[in-house]
């Protein structure tokens, strides 16, 4: 799945070949298996929270209310504030900072039903 384009993932979600929950679980597993070598994530979002968002995306897809990004897992740079998730900007000074609000880009991705896995 990690080699599929966004358009291919969207088509598979719409055709019910895969669920958002399955996609998220797959990518979380890849993060767990590869990140210790790659060190590409500063923060991985709590699995229970991510699965809840994926299930909400699956309900949206089933209701025919999917946006282009609904159910698509993503990660973004650690410079964007995300309420309830650590945002460090890769700085030791901010290593425990948890933003009280979401950056606009994150708000828009969240509203579209995309599922953030980490930063």
Concise structural overview:
45% of the residues lie in helices and 6% in strands. It has 119 residues and is mainly alpha-helical.
List key phrases describing it.
119 residues; mainly alpha; two-stranded parallel ribbon; 4 helices; 2 strands
Give structural notes.
It is a single chain. The chain has helices spanning about 5-15, 20-40, 45-60, 105-110; strands at about 75, 115-119. The model has no long low-confidence stretch (mean pLDDT about 95). The chain contains four helices and two strands, in the order H-H-H-E-H-E. It has about 120 residues and is mainly α. The protein has one domain (about 5-119). The longest helix is centred in the N-terminal third of the chain and has 19 residues, at about 20-40. It is about 45% helix and about 5% strand. The protein starts with 5 loop residues before the first helix and ends with a strand. It has a two-stranded parallel ribbon with strand order 1-2.
